[in-house]
Model the fold of this input.
Amino acid sequence: MPKIDELTLAKELIRFPSITPNDYGIMKFLEKKLKNLGFKTKILEFSEKKHIPVKNIYARFGKLNPNFCYAGHLDVVPPGNIDDWTVNPFKPSIKKGYLIGRGANDMKSSVASFVAAVSNFLSSNKNFKGSISLLITGDEEGIAVNGTKKVVEFLKKKKEKIDFCLLGEPTNPEKLGEMIKIGRRGSLTGHLTIYGIQGHVAYPHRANNPSNCLVNILKKLKDIKFDNGTKNFQPTNLEVTKININNNADNVIPGSAHASFNVRFNNKHSSKSLKKKINKIISNFAKRNKCKFKIDYIVSGESFLTKPNHVTYMIKNIVKKNTKITPKLSTTGGTSDARFIRKISPCLEFGLVGKTMHKVDEAVSLKDLKRLTKIYTDILENYFKWKQVL
Done:
């Protein structure tokens, strides 16, 4: 059984400039590594109109249940201005105990740590009862139409059972061991257009300014107190993200006005209930101002919570043992691919420290990288021991 070194693999993965949705051969490279460990692999390429096809990989070692799955992504965000980096973002460098490169933090190093952990586990547990799988996407940093969402749909059709999933996103704010994600808030985006009557600024009675109606609607939406939060979630909040009147003339009342907003909501709401509430407010103001309106919604994901159980506390204890920090069980932050995976499996998230993700000189501590491999190895050891006792 070949042994995988997490640092070597992390550096190899960083060398691929796999900016979403481009692959540059990274999935084939990982597939070869996993096949050498004994995994059965399948590269899943999905496409959508007006979008570049994206490669994903699902790999499984073993045929028995339970099936423990690790999920992650190998696509990265663009590096930005290369001149701002102290190193080439796709030529991994080590400086002062840190591995630097695009994806070092989010999240190629986490993938490398888990693969190394699997090689450690298999070298001493050749006949374990169960399966280990990896669900790795190349479409997480983009709009995620051809990534984990479609892999999950594929697995459902194939009736592939996953008993538990660990997503390796960088969950820790400042130090390794601070936070395990047990859920996420939902995300609802609204694109609103108000239609009035264009006219001359000097003759407002001959026009109907849609911007007046839009401003009043946005104020009303911002004033909504959706809730006070829950035991596991922070309060729901709505933020205006764009306002566009699209009028270059100072003496013309515009005929339309546009705005976008985003709602991050907890499990007291659903996207359906929020749409109903928001539509009622918009409709009332539009009617009062004799305007017409159009509203388009995009739901990135519903809120969800993986209720803490034996596996949750087992992972929490392992993290504490290895880091000397008691991790907080949290639902903070943005959305993640856990919003798709939770439809087929309980899902927790634990990975590296996220301080430098998406930044110039993105980096991971070499000490944290090694400790994460140990944490992942211990999780596999304890998960299958516990399952055999049951």
Notes: Residues 6-184+303-389 form a domain with the Aminopeptidase fold (CATH 3.40.630.10).
